[in-house]
Specification:
single chain, 327 residues, mainly alpha, 2 domains, 61% helix, globular
């Protein structure tokens, strides 16, 4: 009797291929080992090309590697998790890089040594961000599958662990490029909430619920798309980040103090005329702070090494020198 019950259970829950721990029906141990291996790529030696190291540190590529493992190792039980993860990545990326901010990602790739034309970049963008959720959704709907809400919790755990592992904060702008990271997280949370319910609605062919959950999923993207100041704000931050890294266009080293001020002055006259008051105040603050720390260096506010008052050899004003004659 007990033997027949055990046999029936084994038929109802088939053992996944390459199961590492007995009773692990979803083969989570294999997935965790893969995640730890990817996380360790943060400490690859400098001999590895910077482009390869950066690619292995990107969460989108982690997801692609998990998908390849699902296909290559026949881990069908991972599909609900991978669908939630893929939808959340697509939602976060579209929200974070609305208004053409993805162009800053293309510039970062150029800095890393991969210069690709815009059409190729857009095609690869849809290949890694749009195609995975569409294919996984079609696979699950084909067999009338559903997504347990716990998969959203697992995805949230992986997201937060990745963020704190790579950057010690939920803001991963330094890993990618400056972007509205709070809105991106709103896109992640919207996907975690709606994806299981959206799959159930699609299986039930409930058009009202499909429309409702699809609308909720699009809210973070709409909030970014309808913000008229988003593009100028984060293009400006990306420009400053490239200057701070000493590689504004992918070449050269960081210059001496004053390079940031010079870049602000160039931006003030060319790319960002609407930010002129902010740039003016930024220039004054940078020069004031730098002058306080380096009093013997010429200020960028006075490029001809002139000062608004006469100074002595020791850089003190003339009126601050004690008299040299005796009474």
């Amino acid at each position: 009797m007990a033997e027949s019950t055990r046999t029936a259970r084994s038929h109802s829950t088939p053992i996944p291929p390459y199961q590492l721990v007995a009773g692990d029906q979803h083969n989570l141990c294999l997935g965790l080992l893969a995640a730890f291996a990817l996380a360790s790529c943060k400490h690859l030696p400098p001999t590895v090309p910077s482009f390869v190291r950066w690619q292995l540190s990107a969460y989108t590529n982690w997801n692609l590697i998990f998908i390849l493992m699902r296909v290559g190792l026949s881990q069908t039980q991972w599909e609900p998790f991978l669908l939630v993860n893929s939808v959340s990545i697509a939602s976060a990326f579209r929200t974070a890089f609305a208004h053409g901010l993805d162009e800053n990602m293309r510039k970062k790739l150029r800095v890393l040594g991969v210069d690709m034309p815009r059409p190729l970049f857009v095609a690869l963008d849809h290949l890694v961000h749009t195609a995975p959720p569409m294919l996984l959704l079609a696979s699950i709907l084909k067999r009338n599958g559903r997504i347990h809400p716990m998969n959203s919790i697992y995805v949230l755990i992986l997201y937060t662990w990745f963020s704190f592992r790579q950057n010690s904060t939920l803001d991963v702008s330094t890993l990618y490029v400056p972007h509205p990271w709070k809105r991106a997280w709103a896109g992640v949370l919207a996907a975690l909430f709606t994806t299981p319910r959206l799959v159930d609605a699609l299986n039930a062919r409930d058009r009202r619920k499909v429309l409702l959950y699809a609308s909720i999923l699009m809210l973070p993207w709409l909030s970014a798309k309808l913000d008229p100041n988003l593009r100028s704000k984060y293009n400006f931050e990306c420009m400053l980040a490239r200057e701070a890294s000493g590689n504004p266009e992918g070449g050269g080293r960081r210059g001496r103090r004053g390079s940031v001020t010079g870049n602000l002055q160039r931006a003030r006259s060319t790319s960002f005329p609407q930010l002129k008051p902010v740039l003016e105040s930024s220039t004054l603050v940078i020069d004031a702070v730098a002058k306080a720390h380096h009093p013997h260096e010429p200020s960028s506010l006075y490029p001809q090494h002139t000062h608004p008052y006469p100074v002595g050899d020791d850089m003190r004003p003339a009126w601050a020198h004690p008299p040299t004659h005796q009474i």
